Amino acid sequence: MEDYNLLAGILNFALYFGISIVFLVIFKTLYTFATPHAEWELIKEEQNTAAAVGFGGAIIGFAIALAGAVSNSADLIDFAIWGVIALLAQVLAFSLVRFIFMPKITSRIEGNEVSAGIVLGATNVAVGCINAACMTY
Fold first, then answer.
1. What Rg do the C-alpha atoms of the chain give, in angstroms?
2. What letter would DSSP give residue 44?
3. Which of 16, 105, 112, 132 has its CA at a distance of 20 to 30 angstroms from the CA of residue 122?
4. DSSP state of 10
5. How many other β-carbons are positioned within 10 Å of the β-carbon of residue 108?
6. Number of neighbouring beta carbons within 10 Å of residue 71
7. Is the whole model's pTM more than 0.85, yes or no?
8. Contact 89, 131 (CB under 8 A)
9. Domain extents for the chain?
């Protein structure tokens, strides 16, 4: 019986972990489409620190929210639904910064203004934490 529980636990871990990695890849793709600046080009080709900090915060914020979804979901379907909600909330975070807090965020990131990257990254992490906390029920 203990072997069965161990195998079931490993299988559940593998399923949730695998789906989480897929969600991270989807998030990375969608987030880079949502931002008007070319994130990967700025980071990889131009070594743009502001873009790296902002995008890193987005990844961390989404991972925090996704962890909340894993911890609080009843099953895989529930997790997938909350994962999509987490993804949408993180994209919304960028929109809040872009349209309300810092309308020139894109040009500032493209100009490698690190302070803009920090604000964007911090906002993304904050939204991820709030997002995760709101998933507890």
1. 17
2. I
3. 16
4. H
5. 20
6. 12
7. yes
8. yes
9. 19-134
